[in-house]
Amino acid sequence: MSTEEKRTDISKYGEFGLIDHLTHSISLQNPSSLKGVGDDAALIDNGNHLTVVSTDLLLEGIHFDLMYNPLKHLGYKAIIVNLSDIYAMNAQPKQVTVSLGVSNRFSVEALEELYSGIKAACEHYKVDLVGGDTTSSNQGLVISVTAIGQGEKEKITYRSGAKVGDIVCVTGDLGAAYLGLQLLEREKQIYLSQPEVQPDLESQEYLVGRQLKPEARRDMVELFARNNIVPTAMIDVSDGLSSDLMHICKQSNVGAFIEESGVPIHPEAQQMAIKFKLDPITCALSGGEDYELLFTIDEKDLPAVRLLPDIYIMGEIVPREDGIKLHTKGGNIHPIKAQGWDHF
Amino acid sequence: MSTEEKRTDISKYGEFGLIDHLTHSISLQNPSSLKGVGDDAALIDNGNHLTVVSTDLLLEGIHFDLMYNPLKHLGYKAIIVNLSDIYAMNAQPKQVTVSLGVSNRFSVEALEELYSGIKAACEHYKVDLVGGDTTSSNQGLVISVTAIGQGEKEKITYRSGAKVGDIVCVTGDLGAAYLGLQLLEREKQIYLSQPEVQPDLESQEYLVGRQLKPEARRDMVELFARNNIVPTAMIDVSDGLSSDLMHICKQSNVGAFIEESGVPIHPEAQQMAIKFKLDPITCALSGGEDYELLFTIDEKDLPAVRLLPDIYIMGEIVPREDGIKLHTKGGNIHPIKAQGWDHF
C-alpha cells in the first residue's frame, strides 16, 4: 500500500468496534447458521439441538506473561476461557481443539506442562480434546482454542434477551482476578530490580488464584437447569462488569441501573484494592477475567433465584433512554462507561 | 524450570511427532466425540449427520510473508486451507470462525483488505463467517481459522480406510505451489538487494497463483457424490505428497507403490523446476500447499474414476511390509520419505 493511501489507525475503533466494522456487512447464507458474530459463541442448528462454537486466541505478551503464568495453569486457563463462553450461552461444552505456535526456546517438557493443564481442564469439565496442531513460531507462544458445545433450543441464552424490569445478577465475586494481576505485576517489577528478593504471594492465594487458575461456572448452568430457570440474557465477565453489561444492554436495546452495594467483592479484593490505592468498585467494574456469569432474569424468577447460593442481585434493567448507571453507596448516580480490557 | 531439569529439544519429535507425543494419552469421554486428533478434522456425532471441525493457525514469518502475500489473497487462503480439510473428509463446510492478532502497524484499511479476501472465500464456497475476535499482537499477524462442516456418516472418508489393492489417486497437479513460492522468494531476494528492479512474475501467473491463491477441491467432492464414489481414504495435500501419503499409509497400516509417470506435474512446474535445478518429481513429492485431494478407491471403482476429469491414477496400496515406494521413469525403485513442510 503506498503512503498516499488512506491510513486509519486501528485504535480509532477499539477492540469491539473493529470486529463490528469488519464484519457488519456479512449476511448468513446457510440455514444452519443461526447466530454469527456478536455473542459469546456462534450457534449452528443441528435439528434436535444447537451446536455452540466459541474460539479464543491467546498471545504471549498480550494475554499472558510467562514470568508469572506457570505453563500448566496457562493451559488450564486457555481451556477455561473458552468453556466459559459456552456456559454463558446456557449450553454444555463437549469438545475442544487446541492449536499452538511455539518457538524453539520451549522444550518438550515445557509443552508437556502446558498440555498437562489442558488435559486437567478437559478432565475436570468432561470435554474431549479432539483436534488441533502445533506449529513453529518465531513470535513467542500462541494458543488458539475452539470449544464446541451443545444446547437446547429453548434454553440458549443470548446477550440480546434482557427486557425492562428484568433483574441483573452475577455469580461469585468480581475484581479479584484483576487485583491478582496487579500483585503479580508488582512482584515481577520487584524481581526484575532485586532478583534476590523472594516473592511472598502465599498470603494472597485467593487473588493470585483467581488470576492464574480461574474456573468456568458449569455449576451455575447446572443449578439453573435443576431449578428450571432460564436467564433472559447472559454473558461471562471476561472484559469487566461495565463492558460486559454494556454488551447486554447494547444488544438488548435497554439500559441498566446497578446498586454499588449489590456488586459482590471478596474481602481480600476489598483490602488489596485499598492497599493499591484503587477504588474496589472500579476494580469490580473494569477488572475483567473473573469468568463469572452476568445474567438477567425475569422478575417472576426472583423468589427462586434469591434462594440459590453464590448469586448476587445487583440491579435492574431499565429503558434504554435511562442509560447504564451506578447508584453508589454514597448516594450518587454515575454513568457506567466501558473501561474493560482493550488491548489496542 | 531450573537448568538442571531435563530439556528435550522439540526438533527431536518434529511437527507430527510432537502432537502425537502430547496427545497420545488422551481418551475421548463424550459419546458424541467420534474422532479426535489425527485426521484432517474432528468428527462429532449429531444424530442425523456428523459435524466436522478443522482448525489452523497461520503465523507471519512462518506460514506467510507479507512482502509477497497480498492481504486479500492471504485472507482468501486462510479460509481455503481449512475448507480443504473439511472436503478431505468428504464433507461440506458450512461455517468458519476467524480470530486475528494484529499489531498497530496494520491500518484499518489493511484489515479491510484481509477481510475482503476472507469474505470472498466465504461467498465462493458458500460458508458463513459466524464468529471470532480481533486482538492486539506484538508478534506480527496471527490468523486462526476454524471451519465447521457437515457430512453423512456412511460417506465420511478417514485417513485410515485404505486397504491392500486400492488404487491411489490425486486431483489436479502437484508441485506448482512450491515452485511459485521459490519464484516469490527469488524475487524478494532480488528486490532486497536491488530495489529498483521490477519483478516480472506475470509470465509465471500459474505457479504464483497456485501459491498465493489456492482453491479447495469442492468440485471433486461434488463429483464423487454425483458418481456414487466414496474414496476408501482421503487427505488433502498440504504437507506434500510424500508426507500426506505416509499419513494415509501409517493410519491405514499399509504400504504404497507409486509410479513416477502417474504423478501429475503441470508443464510450467516441470520447466520451472529445471530452471531452479530441481527434480520435478521431488517438487511434487515434497512441495506441499497444493490443496489437491489425495485419495484411495476400491478397485471396483476404477472404471468409473478413469472417466472423471482431473483425477490422476498414481499407484496402488500394497501390504505394509512392502513399504512406501516410488517406481521412477528410469526403472528404479526408491523408498518415499516424508520431506514435507516441517517448520521446526
Any overview of this molecule?
The structure is a homodimer of 344-residue chains. With 344 residues, chain A is an alpha+beta fold. Chain A has 2 domains: 51-153, 60s Ribosomal Protein L30, Chain: A (2-Layer Sandwich); 159-335, PurM-like C-terminal domain (Phosphoribosyl-aminoimidazole Synthetase, Chain A, domain 2, Alpha-Beta Complex). The first copy, chain A, contains 10 helices and 14 strands. The first copy, chain A, has helices at 14-23, 71-87, 108-125, 176-193, 205-212, 218-226, 241-252, 267-275, 280-286, 302-306; strands at residues 33-35, 42-45, 50-59, 92-102, 128-131, 134-136, 142-151, 167-171, 233-236, 255-259, 293-297, 311-318, 324-327, 333-335. In chain A, the strands form 2 sheets. In chain A, strands 1, 2, 3, 4, 5, 6 and 7 form a 7-stranded mixed beta sheet that branches. Chain A has a 7-stranded mixed beta sheet with strand order 9-11-8-12-10-13-14, with helices on both faces. In chain A, strand 1 and strand 2 form a beta hairpin. Chain A is globular, with a radius of gyration of 21 Å. The two termini of chain A are 22 Å apart. At the A-B interface, helix 1, strand 2, strand 3, strand 4 and helix 3 of A face helix 1, strand 2, strand 3, strand 4 and helix 3 of B.
